[in-house]
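Human: We require from you a protein record containing the residue sequence and its fold in token form, and nothing else.

Assistant:
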Amino acid sequence: MGCKIQSSKGGFRKLAIFSCLAILLWIYSCASLREWKMGKDIFSRTYAEDFMFFHPKLNSALQDYAKRHKGNSFQIARLGSDAVIIQGIYQGEGDQGRYSTTITIKPAGAGKSRTEIKISAKSPKASSKNLEGAARDLFQTIEKGAGIRPLP
């Protein structure tokens, strides 16, 4: 009789472990599916540049762009060891309109920096596609001016 009790306890343990693993696998598959549906975040990018050397390059690229393209201006709003925030006005090429921008640069590990752009339009007619296009253009301006490429 003692053997039957132990074997049923062992069977219960195996069933409990199997059930927990099945639930964890299901949760993990849902989380990875959600990431797949969301797609690539177009408002942030990571670069293989050390934070302390990267943010001056980025600021310089923005200042050069603002000098060559009237109607654009950018200034450092916060300069810290954990983040640099640059705020400004971005006026894209052609008839894109003017956008209020906040660019945040943060360290993203050893030798990496993460850049996030928050952009809003003054015009109520601007769509999310306009904002996405302006963010892409602004990233291209930064990358071209600083001579960098984002990490995949």
Summary: The beta strands are 44-47, 73-79, 84-91, 98-107, 113-121.
